[in-house]
Amino acid sequence: MDWFAAVDIYCERTSAHFWAEPVNALSNFAVILPVGWGILTARRLGEKDPLVWALLALAAMIGLGSFVFHTVAQRWSELVDTLPIWSFLALYAFVAAKRLLDWKLVGWHAVALGAGTVLVLIFFANGEDAAHANEILPAGEVLNGSAQYLPAILGGALVVAGVWWKRRALWHLAAISSLAFVLALSMRTMDAAICPTMSLGTHFMWHLLNCLSLGFAMQLILRGGEAAQEAARETPSAAAFSR
């Protein structure tokens, strides 16, 4: 694979210049809002879990990686764009399972995380497949390269269902995050098809709605940890009262 090959896969880009996608590039700075919100909440709650702080760092890296890709649009920067996203999703699934759903199968989650990382690396190691992984397709190809994110849609639905079952008071956070991601993916999907009538495209909305999804997803994790701590504090008292 030629890691320095130019990549032109979004409606806004019309050349290989650094600022050929200014709106797609600059819209990534919206990630400051969900990350800042998460940091403020984490500090207020006295969050000490390094995995939660790692999630916030990965969320910031998603914005940075995407900015790099939408300015230096080459094959290596596509990897810089994609790896933080999948790393965040894998780690989020791991943390959410423990904090929100009380799943104890840590070993199996570690295996799943490792397997997911390997699959992503294999995907990018295959030069021919990777060269067309996110290619703008004809309007008839409805998903426009967004099929890779369908597992995240399924994962979001599972989190919403699990939070409704285990942490119902936080259900609205899970629902808003999941709905925002679905809307974001629809914006990413229609980018190519809308080019003839809207030269700017809709990919920048993928960034903005993703930031909305990220913000509520992190609040869900942080407040889920707070709820778990409160439940743990109440349990001894309840047990003592029952005696």
Please tell me about this protein's structure.
This protein has 243 residues and is an all-alpha fold. It has one domain: Rhopdopsin 7-helix transmembrane proteins (Up-down Bundle), CATH 1.20.1070. It has 9 helices and no strands. It has helices spanning 22-26, 32-45, 50-69, 75-99, 106-125, 127-131, 150-166, 171-190, 203-242. It is elongated, with a radius of gyration of 20 Å. The N and C termini lie far apart (68 Å). The relative contact order is 0.15.
Oligomer: single chain
The helix/strand series, from N terminus to C terminus, equals HHHHHHHHH
CATH domain class = Mainly Alpha
Label the overall shape: elongated
Biggest beta sheet summary: none
Figure out the total of helices: 9
Structural class: mainly alpha
Write a brief caption for the model:
By secondary structure, this protein is mostly helical.
